[in-house]
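Would you mind giving me a polypeptide sequence along with per-residue C-alpha cells?
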Amino acid sequence: MTLSSTPLKQQLPLSRVVWAMLLLLGLAGQLAWAVENQYFNTFMYDNITPDPRAVSWMVAITAVVSTVATILMGTLSDRTRTRWGRRRPYLFIGYIVWGILTAVFPLAAKFHPIAVGVFIAILFDSIMSFFAATASDGAFSAYVTDITTEANRGRVVGSLEIMKWVAFLIIYGGAGFIIQAVGYYWFFYIIGGIAALIGLVCVPFLREEPLTDKPQGTYWGQIANTFQLSSLRQNRDFFKVMIALTLFMVGINVFFPYLMIYLQHYIQLSIVNSSILVAISILVGGIGLAYPIGLLVDRWGRRPVALVAVGLEAVGLLVFSLSRSMVMLTIGGILWLAPFAAWTIATTTWSRDLYPEDKRGQFAGYYVLFNVAFTMIPGPLLGGWLASTYGIATVLDGKPGFIPTPILFQVAAVLVLLAVIPLLTIRMPKTK
C-alpha cells in the first residue's frame, strides 16, 4: 500500500477551523443518525404499532434508500465541478433538508389506521435517509478522505468516532430525560433543528479547491466499470474488507434496532434508567477509547485491531445477553461497545485507504452498500423474526405485539465471529 496521491495542498495539517467544522458536522450527523437508528424505531413501537416487524421493514427499506442515494450521489459528487467544490454543495443542502425531515417524522403517528401510519412513517424515514446519505456518506465521508492521508487518517476517523459516541451519549443517555420533559414531538424538533443549523453554519467554513479537469467517461459508465472483473481484481482488498464488514454488522443489526425496546419492555427498565445505562456504557466504552484506538490503528495497523475487536465483541454480547441487573447490564454494555468502536475505526480507516482517489464518493457509496443495505436488511429482519418467534407476546395500548428476548444478542455474537474469515485472507502491509 502506498501513500495517498492526494494533492499536496490538501495534505497539509488541518487548520483548527477545519477541525472544528469537521467535528461539529460529525456531531450533527451522528445526532440525527442516532435518532433515526433507535428512536424512530422506539417511536414506531410505542406510538404506531408494537409489532416489531413494522420496525424491521422500516429499517430494511430505508437501508436500501440510503445505499442507492450514497452510490448515486457520491458518484455525482466525484464528477461535480463547481466554484464551491465537489462535496460542499451536497453537504450544505443535504444537512439542512436532513434536519427538517428528522423534525417532521413523528407526524406519521397522526395518520390512521395503523397500516397508513406505518406507511407514512416509512415514507418520511426514506426521504430523510436519501438526503442524510447524500450529505453524510456520499459527501462528508469522501471529503474527509480527500483531506487526509494514510499517516493521519486513523486519528481523524478516531476523532470523528468520538463525535459519534458523544451523539450516542446525548441521544441514548439524554433522550429519556428530554422525552419525559417535553415529549416525543419536541424531542424530534430539537434534534432536527440542531442538525439543520449546524449544516447551515459550518459547511461554508470548509475549504475545498475547485477542480477544473473534466471527469473521465460517463456517469453511468463510472458506476458500471466498478463491477467489471478487472476492477474487482484491482480493488479486491477493499471488497474483502467490505465482506468482513457485512458479516460483522449483520450481527449488530440483529439486536441494535430493538435495544431500547429490549431494555424497557423485557428488562423492564424505565426510559430514564435505560438512558443512564446506555450513557455510562458509551462514556466508558466509546468516548473514552475512540481517540486512543485511532492512534493504535495508525501505529499497529488496521487488521490487528479489527481482529481483536471481533473476538471481544462476541464475548461482550454474550455477557450482555445473560445480564439482568443494572450493574451487569452496564458492564455488558461496555464490553460490546468498546470493541464495536474499535471495529468501526479500524475498518472505516482501512476502507478509506483503499478508495481510488478519483472515485472516493462512489466508493463511499459501496461502503454504505455493504455496511447498510447488506446488513440493515437481513439483520433487522432476522431480529424481527427472532423477536416474533421466540419473543414474549404482549398487548400495548390494545395493540398486539412481541417483546424481544436475549436470543437476539446470542445470535448476534455468533454472526460477528464470521468476520474473521475474510480478514485473514488479506495481507496488510505496514503503513508508512
Summary: The chain has 16 helices and two strands. The first strand starts at residue 392 and ends at 396. The beta strands are 392-396, 399-403. The chain has one domain: 15-208+228-423.
